[in-house]
Amino acid sequence: MATIHERLQNKPYSEYAYATRPSKITLFWRRCLIKQFYMFFKLNFKIMMMVVKGHS
Amino acid sequence: MAKVVVLGAGISGHTAALYLKKLLTKNDEVVVVSPNSNFQWIPSNIWVGVGLMKPDDVKFPLAPVYKRQKISYLQAKAIEINPEGNVDIAKPFVRIEYVSESEKGKLENITYDYLVNATGPLLNFDATPGLGPNHFTNSVCTYDHAEKSWQNLKLALEKMQNGEHQTFLIGTGHPMATCQGAAFEYALNIAFEIDKRKLNHLADIVWISNEYELGDFGMGGAYINRGGYVTPTKVFTESVLAEYGIRWIKRAGVFKVEKGKAYYELLDGSKHEQTFDFSMLIPGFAGAKIKAFNNLGEDITSTVFAPNNMMKVDADYSAKPYESWKASDWPEIYQNPTYHNLYAAGIAFAPPHPMSKPMESPNGTKIFPTPPRTGMPSGVIGKVVAQNIAHRIKTGKNEHPHKASMAKQAAACIVSAGYGFTKGQAATMTVSPIVPDWEKYPEYGRDINATVGVIGLAGHWMKLFMHYMFIYKAKAKFGWSLIPE
Ligand SMILES: Cc1cc2nc3c(=O)[nH]c(=O)nc-3n(C[C@H](O)[C@H](O)[C@H](O)COP(=O)(O)OP(=O)(O)OC[C@H]3O[C@@H](n4cnc5c(N)ncnc54)[C@H](O)[C@@H]3O)c2cc1C
Predict the structure, then answer these.
(1) Which residue, B23, B181, B203, B465, has fewest beta-carbon neighbours within 10 Å?
(2) Spelled out in words, what is the top-level CATH class assigned to the domain B3-123+287-395?
(3) Ligand 1 neighbour B179 (Cβ under 6 A)
(4) Whose CA is nearest to atom 8 of ligand 1?
(5) Which structural domain range is residue A43 located in?
(6) Sign of CA pseudo-dihedral B87, B118, B97, B24
(7) Is the CB of residue B40 below 6 angstroms from any atom belonging to ligand 1?
(8) ipTM score over 0.90, yes or no
(9) What's the total number of domains in chain A?
(10) What is the reported pTM?
(11) Strand B76-82's sheet: what is its strand order?
(12) Which atom of ligand 1 has the smallest separation from the CA of B9?
């Protein structure tokens, strides 16, 4: 998302200038297939358990 | 033999109807009344709105499913509820108006033993002059709105390909609109499509929201355990917007739209304008326009429904200040307090109060989101209402062994931002419970270990997986009831 991203960052004292941005390693993990396969099963399991536990 | 009538065949009503049929005997009758002859998986409308799916990918006709399930289906809309019957009809009944081509305008009274109102939201575009697909902004709230939105977005993208600059305004179109998650997802998908075409330099994408802080999402925001810190969703949301190159206007109540221009008031009372070439703004929600009458024909709409037309249920509706709100104010069984054979499921029930702190500008304009009712609780409520009605029919007792308070249920919101096995990504957010419970969780209002906020490919796969899984379930195919709501 380079161009707009840079344009927003270049506005000092604007609110967007204070927003946190992902580091390169964070971006890497978001696309790392091994980690993401693990997350897919972990999140699915977590959500299914939440649905089941949320009502009686 | 009992007769249960379900109004609405959306996520909540359709779930209720399928479970009622499954739980009741062959002699009991389940009737569904819904004006739209299709079931639509609304969350995937976002992908219709950016041209990645067609309306046919997110909908299917209800009639064959109901025929197979032996559920009677009437393509009509409810216009009146007569919970005491009237001088001519001794039983409670609902008055419906057919909408199908062959029977358009025909009126009929359908008697019932139990009635489930699952009519969802009335998309109240009229509350904001100039708002909506018939005027100057787009919508992704239905598949046909989303398809029209895509046609307009495509034109904007073509103009950019010809070197023209375009401003995109996405967010809430009323000072008290909710469903920020859907608009947020659409904004990210537009940013992704623009980036994919390498047209960033020609785009200005603006997020406009009635939230006090971004990440409020109508649930008063949440805290997420991530990166070694307990972080408010404000940080998470601002980070995602900044990453996608989207600037934002918050605490804004859009009160009027003209061609290419939205007018809004900020919480400080100042009034502003934002021009746009393409806009998608979520309207305010109300309940379906259904009236109620007693057996003397007197209008009892205000007894059965709240002023916004959503149905009153077992919630605490007494007016209380924000500081006195409690998790126990929220309903558990969704039964109407006056007529005990009347239930409301999904968005159709009236919440006791907002979750976000009410805010008012010096001009007296209320600018804050009303509570969100996402698909997961809507489906669960539909199921629980069906289970309780089946229990009552089988035992003859006014008992409700099944409960599903939004102050106990969790919700998951998966905001996709891109598409493709390796290119897609999504922000997955879970909160538990949906309504903060400050007595049980004094520090953060919710269970911090159950609250998640992660971004990655996995979320996108989940969103796609859920698309196919829930459409499979809604088609009532083999093993459908094993799939959680
Ligand atoms: C674009 C978008 C994206 C979303 N994404 C997500 C998401 O990712 N995750 C999530 O959990 N939630 C999401 N939601 C919210 C989710 O779609 C709703 O919570 C859910 O659809 C509510 O279900 P419901 O059955 O109450 O209402 P609906 O699904 O709207 O169903 C209402 C039904 O009532 C019928 N009806 C209307 N008037 C009448 C009448 N007078 N008589 C009889 N029938 C009537 C309608 O035709 C319809 O069949 C999204 C919403 C939108 C708009």
Answers:
(1) B465
(2) alpha beta
(3) yes
(4) B43
(5) 21-56
(6) negative
(7) no
(8) no
(9) 1
(10) 0.95
(11) B107-111, B93-98, B76-82, B291-292
(12) 49
